Amino acid sequence: MNKIRLERFLIVSLLLCMVCNMTMQAKAYESFKVSIYVRAYEVDKMKDMHWLDSTWTVISQQLKVDKIYLETHRDLLIVDDATLEQAKKFFHDRGIETAGGITYTINEANSFETFCYSNPEHRKMVQQIAEHTAKHFDEFILDDFFFTSCKSDFEIKAKGAQSWTDYRLKLMTEAGRNLVLKPAKKINPHVKVIIKYPNWYDHFQGLGFNLEEGPQLFDGVWTGTETRDPAGNQHLQNYLSYNVIRYFDNLRPGYNGGGWVDSGGLNLGMDRYAEQLHLTMLSKTPEIILFAYNQLLGVKLSPRFRTPWQGMGTSFNYDEMTAPIRQPDGTVVQPTTMARIADVVLKQTDKLISKLGNPVGIKSYKPFHASGDDFLQNYLGMIGLPMDMHPTFPEDQQVVLLTAQAAKDPEIATKIKKQLQSGQEVVITSSLLKAIPEKIAEVSELRCTDLKALVNDFGRYGQANRDLLIPQVLYYTNDAWEMVSAGRPLRGGVSGYPILLRAPYATGNLYVLTIPDDMGNLYDYPAAALNEIRRVMSKDLGVYLEAPSKVGLFVYDNKTLVVENFNDEPVEVCVVTDDKVMKLENLEDATLLSPLPSERLDTKRAPKNSFRMLLLPHSYKAFKY
C-alpha cells in the first residue's frame, strides 16, 4: 500500500512540475518573442550572484522577457565556463530561454576594430571563440561585427590585385564556413549559428558581408533595425526599421529570426525609440532583441524623453510608461529605466500584430552586391510608398521599381522590355537612367546628364517650401510625357523639368522618377505631387495615400493596413481604395470610416473611394477594409 501511495505521489509531483514548467515557459507576448542581448562585459559580472539577481529584478519588474542572449566574447574579453553556466541556470530557473552571442571585435571603441582574417593568430582566436561558445549553447548569434575593415600588411598581401570588395566577400565567406560554422558544429552538432546583419545593408559588400551566400551558409539571419537619429552619420530613415526586415526576409524566406533595436534615438524623445520597436514588429517578424542589458538597466527614465506633443492622445503615451506598475503579487513598483518604455510599446503592438496578414509592397529589384541610390527605398517609404526589396527581378507585378542598383544586372534591358511588352510598367530612377543610358535608349531615348536644375514650383501640384536641386531628365517631345513637372517658377511662362516622366513602349509604360540630389528633399515635394507618384506606383496594392511626406503606409495581404505619421505635427491623410470598398474598420477600437463624397471628374481613371482621417504626431491608425 505504501508503495502504491509513493508511486501516486511521484506521478502527481511529476505532473505538478510539468505544469509549473509549462507555466514558467509560457510566452510573455502572443505574436512574438521579446529577448535581451547581454554583452560580455555584463555576462562577466554575472559571476556575482548578488549583482545578477539585483539587476535582473530591476529589468524584470518593468519588462516581460522570453529569452536572453549571453555573449561569450567582445573586445578580447572571453567569459569563463563557470560564469556562463551559472548565468544560464539563473535564467532557466526563472523560465527564460537562453542562447549565446559573439561580437568579433578587437576593440569596439577604436572605430569598431575588427579581426584580420588573413592573420593566422587572429584566425586561431576566431575559431577558439566559436568553439568555446558552442560548448555552452545550442544556438548563438554573431553580433554586427562579423565583417572586416582591417588593412594590415597581412590583408594587403593577401588581397593582391583584387578589389577590396571582391577580396573581403571571399575572405569572410571562407571565415564563416571554416572558422565559425565547421568548428562550432564539430564541438556541438546540434548548434545553430545565426549571423546578425546590421542596418547599413547597401554598403555590406565593401566590408565582406555576403548577402548572396551568407543566408544560405548560416542557420539563420537576424536584422539590425536600429534607426536611431536620422541626422546621425548613417542617415538612417525611420522606415528602415520595417524595410530592412522585409529585404532580409526575401534573401532566404523563413530564415530571418527577428529584429534588433538599441536605445539610440532616445535623445529625440521617447517616440523615436518607440517607433523603432513598433516598426520592427509591423514587419511581422517573430522575435525582437533589445540591445542591451546594460542599456535597459542604465538608461534612466527622464522628463526630457517626454516630447512636446505628448498629452494630445498620441499612440505612444509617456505618462502611461512612467506610471506605477502593479506586479502579479499585488505590489506596486515605480518604473525607473527605458525597459518600461519597451514593455508598454511591445504589449500595445502585440495586440495589433495578430490582426495583420503578410506584408506586401511595391517590389524593388536590388541585385546582390549592387550599389547606387544608397538606402533610397527608405526615403520612398517615408513618402508613403510601401517598399518590398528583392534580390531577383520580380516577374509577377504590374509595377516594378528599379533604382541605380539595377545597373549591376547585365540583362536589365531585356528584363525591362519583357515587363513592358507584357503590358506592365517599370519605374526607374533618374540615377539608373544616368548609369545605363544606352540600355534605356532601347526603350526610349532619354538622357540624364550632369546638368542640374533649381526648382521649387510644381505647377498645379503645388509649391515646395524651399529650393530643390534636381538632375535634368531630357527627352524627345511626343516620345515621352511629363506627368509631374517642376521649375523656378514653373508657371508664368518659365519652363520646367520632369519629376515623373512617362515613356510608352509596346503595351506598357516606362516611368522615370526624378530623385533630388539630396534624397531628403523628397520630403519637400508638395503633397499633390506625391499623390500622383503614389497613384502610379501602387497599382499592385489596391490602396494608396494622399498625404504630405513623412507618412508611412503598411499594407497586408488580408486587406488590413497601418498608416503612421512621422511628423512632429498632426496631418490630414486620405486612404484611397477602389470604389468597392465602402468602409474602413479601425482594428483597435472597431470604429468605422465612410468614404468621402466622390468629386472626381477624370473619367479616364478607375473610380476610387477616399477615406479621410487625422493622424496625431508620431502616431498610427490600423484598419481592415
Shape: globular
Provide the CATH superfamily of the largest domain: Glycosidases
Major β-sheet, in short?
8 strands, parallel, barrel
Beta-strand segment tally: 31
What level of helicity do the residues show?
A: 25-40%
Q: What is CATH's topology name of the largest domain?
A: TIM Barrel
Assembly type of the chains comes to: single chain
Number of discrete domains: 2
N→C terminal distance: 66 Å
Question: Which CATH architecture of the largest domain would you pick?
Answer: Alpha-Beta Barrel
Strand content: 25-35%
Strand order of the largest sheet: 1-2-4-7-8-9-10-11
Q: What is the overall number of helices?
A: 18
Global Rg: 27 Å
CATH class of the largest domain: Alpha Beta
* Rounded average pLDDT: 94
Low-confidence stretches: 9-25
Structure, explained:
The chain has 625 residues and is α/β, with parallel strands linked by helices. It folds into two domains: 26-353, TIM Barrel; 359-624, Rossmann fold. 31% of the residues lie in helices and 26% in strands. The protein is built from 18 helices and 31 strands. The protein has an eight-stranded parallel β-barrel, surrounded by five helices. Helix 10 packs parallel to helix 13 (339-353).
Secondary structure topology:
Layout: H1 2-25, E1 33-38, H2 40-45, H3 49-60, E2 67-74, E3 77-78, H4 81-92, E4 97-102, E5 105-107, E6 113-114, H5 120-136, E7 139-142, H6 153-159, H7 164-187, E8 192-197, H8 214-217, E9 220-224, H9 240-251, E10 256-261, H10 270-282, E11 287-291, H11 293-298, H12 318-321, E12 325-326, E13 332-333, H13 339-353, E14 359-360, E15 362-365, H14 376-381, E16 387-390, E17 399-402, H15 412-421, E18 425-429, H16 430-435, H17 437-440, E19 447-457, E20 463-474, E21 481-487, E22 496-505, E23 508-513, H18 527-537, E24 543-546, E25 551-556, E26 560-565, E27 571-578, E28 584-586, E29 592-593, E30 608-615, E31 619-624
Parallel strand pairs: 1-2, 1-11, 2-4, 4-7, 7-8, 8-9, 9-10, 10-11, 15-16, 15-17, 17-18, 18-23
Antiparallel strand pairs: 2-3, 5-6, 12-13, 14-25, 19-20, 21-22, 22-23, 24-27, 25-26, 26-31, 27-30, 28-29, 28-31
